[in-house]
Design the sequence.
């Protein structure tokens, strides 16, 4: 079974631009979560989607948003990019929302210059 | 006080050694405990997934959870150079409406041949 697929793997953007990252979960998985990983803060929860609805949101500004499609695929968008948004963005999927472990993709490395 | 504390290391051991990795936490609501392994330029890979207190063994890996002490451990027996990676502990509470993982910062492990 294919794992979680994230595209693109690498992205370089300029301050003020916006970016969209894509995630395809493991087949049959219905919950998709997004995390930001930086050397200073480690892995931090961004948001979780289930049945095309955002169920949880972490402590990030409104510039960070996402959505989930009917096939469970998900996208996250960051508008008005700041230098501090440079990070590895990880998508994870799970079969259900509860009592089900998360499986991560290899991430999208975003660099903001 | 951070919710999850993990010694960042780095930890360097000779091949064949027993490795002990640990995390402490403060949130008594945590019920699910995980260990992830992350190689450079890759996403976290799930190693162990446990619920509540006790031990779980999988090959060379043993996970221990002591909820009374708010302390979890991962033991690696007969460590191999291929075990060289960052190890992340993660945990979540049992509330379905708040399903998200809280991670430790990770411990960098190097196993020397």
Sequence:
């Amino acid at each position: 079974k294919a794992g979680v697929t994230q595209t693109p793997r690498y992205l370089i953007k300029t301050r003020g631009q916006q970016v969209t990252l894509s995630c395809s979960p493991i087949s049959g998985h219905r919950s998709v979560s997004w995390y930001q990983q930086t050397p200073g803060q480690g892995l931090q929860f961004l948001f979780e989607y289930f049945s095309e609805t955002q169920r949880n949101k972490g402590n990030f500004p409104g510039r960070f948003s996402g959505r989930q499609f009917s096939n469970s695929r998900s996208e996250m968008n960051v508008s008005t990019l700041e230098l501090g948004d440079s990070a590895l963005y990880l998508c994870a999927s799970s079969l259900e929302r509860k009592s089900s472990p998360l499986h991560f993709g290899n991430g999208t490395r975003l660099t903001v210059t | 006080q951070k919710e999850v504390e993990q010694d960042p290391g780095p930890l360097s051991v000779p091949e064949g050694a027993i490795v002990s990795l640990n995390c402490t936490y403060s949130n008594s609501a945590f019920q699910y405990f995980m260990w992830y392994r992350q190689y450079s330029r890759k996403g976290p890979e799930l190693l162990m997934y446990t619920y509540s207190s006790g031990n779980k063994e999988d090959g060379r890996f043993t996970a221990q959870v002591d909820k009374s002490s708010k302390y979890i451990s991962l033991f690696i027996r007969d460590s191999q150079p291929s075990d060289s990676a960052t190890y992340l502990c993660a945990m979540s509470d049992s509330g379905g409406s708040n399903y998200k993982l809280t991670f430790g910062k990770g411990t960098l492990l190097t196993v020397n041949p």
